[in-house]
Design brief:
alpha/beta
């Protein structure tokens, strides 16, 4: 076990591995799915545990390692959370003709 940790720290085992718990929103998941697929191809030894939900995730309690959310808010995240703008998309309201 120690030699495995040493290989990872020294970079002798250059292929990343492990498990990442990823929480994705239900709405723009199609925008994200291509990036997730590319990541999985580039890092085949990383297991992605993906949950699709629009509910808040408590990152401090390790409910997820990474949470992607769609928001119109310009508020900054709490200081213990790193927030990065990934892109933009348009909200479109649609309905049936009889509505």
């Amino acid at each position: 076990m120690l030699s495995e940790a040493e290989r990872q720290v020294t970079g002798k085992d250059s292929e990343l591995s492990g498990r990442i718990k990823l929480s994705l929103p239900a709405v723009p998941v199609t925008h994200i799915s291509e990036a997730v697929a590319e990541f999985a191809i580039q890092y085949p030894r990383i297991e992605l545990d993906i949950t699709v939900s629009d509910h808040p995730v408590d990152l401090a309690r390790r409910e997820a390692d990474i949470a992607v959310r769609a928001s119109r808010s310009t508020k900054r995240p709490p200081k213990d959370i790193v927030g990065i703008k990934l892109g933009r998309f348009r909200w479109v309201t649609t309905s049936t003709a009889i509505y």
